[in-house]
User: Which sequence fits this backbone?
């Protein structure tokens, strides 16, 4: 049975709740987290939640930020409404803070699990505003004109992807700032300064970020996508890595921050997909196959992490 030692979490806004459901299902089946986690945008926060309160508790925390009548509990002061009319940033700030506290940070920093968070750095030539425009256009090209798992256009426009190790953060505030920077998709969430320089959503460069890898490292990497591609099977191999996508379009609006957001439906689809893939042996079959499009399971027993029912880190 092949060993996955890296999980990569793609971005995708509310679609990332599918990843949370997948992780919940895997943990239910006794899987343990690997030694390396990589993520960007909301995917980075989902990855971190697996190490702290657990993906299901993260879901409940997010749901708890919504009023029963559809209004947002977290609101800007009235005098600032004209400057920040969108509710995404205060909601995301409060939600991220709910999944990481001082005890979690201490455990994360002493854990053997390495977490890399991908952010985008603006182009020196285009500046911050120009980079936001260029990144948005590149995203549109990737989504509607020339779909690619790892697009090249943002790099050609001068945007750069940077991987920041979570253990480099020595305060809860710095962890939360890093996670907000990784999800800073303008205008929903404003850019954040990391190490003195502006940082944007890592998805502006690559929505499924992975650092440079050796062939052996590629073979041990599982990438959790959030966008369904009907031309591909649920699990497939490309470039030596294994990719896992939703079995159908995730039933949630990417940017909906109201009580109407179907984040539970996205979570449930992920859990159902996880049970289907694991119980059906699709990942094991994937790793045995020689074709890049064959339909792979991982034994994560060497990890230092507890299942979701007890999300604390073993030390």
Assistant:
């Amino acid at each position: 049975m092949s060993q996955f030692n890296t999980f990569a979490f793609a971005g995708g806004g509310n679609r990332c709740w599918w990843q949370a459901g997948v992780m919940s299902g895997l943990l239910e089946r006794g899987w343990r987290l690997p030694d390396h986690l990589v993520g960007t945008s909301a995917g980075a926060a989902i990855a971190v939640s697996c190490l702290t309160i657990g993906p299901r508790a993260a879901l409940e925390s997010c749901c708890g930020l919504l009023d029963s009548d559809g209004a947002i509990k977290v609101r800007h002061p009235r005098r600032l409404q004209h400057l920040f009319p969108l509710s995404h940033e205060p909601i995301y700030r409060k939600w991220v803070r709910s999944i990481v506290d001082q005890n979690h940070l201490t455990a994360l920093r002493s854990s053997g699990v390495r977490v890399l968070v991908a952010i985008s750095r603006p182009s020196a030539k285009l500046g911050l505003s120009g980079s936001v425009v260029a990144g948005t256009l590149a995203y549109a090209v990737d989504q509607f004109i020339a779909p690619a798992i790892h697009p090249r256009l943002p790099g050609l426009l001068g945007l750069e992807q940077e991987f920041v190790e979570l253990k480099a953060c020595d305060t809860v505030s710095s962890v939360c700032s890093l996670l907000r920077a990784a999800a800073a998709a303008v205008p929903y969430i404003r850019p954040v300064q990391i190490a003195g320089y502006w940082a944007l959503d890592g998805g502006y460069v690559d929505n499924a970020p992975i650092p440079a890898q050796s062939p052996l490292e590629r073979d041990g990497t599982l990438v959790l996508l959030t966008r369904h591609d009907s031309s591909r099977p649920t699990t497939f191999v490309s470039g030596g890595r294994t990719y896992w996508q939703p079995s159908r379009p995730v039933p949630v609006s990417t940017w909906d921050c109201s009580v109407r957001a179907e984040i539970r439906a996205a979570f449930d689809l992920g859990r159902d997909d996880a049970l289907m893939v694991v119980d059906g042996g699709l990942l094991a079959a994937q790793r045995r196959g020689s074709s890049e499009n064959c339909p792979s399971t991982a034994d994560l027993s060497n990890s230092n992490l507890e299942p979701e029912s007890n999300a604390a880190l073993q030390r």
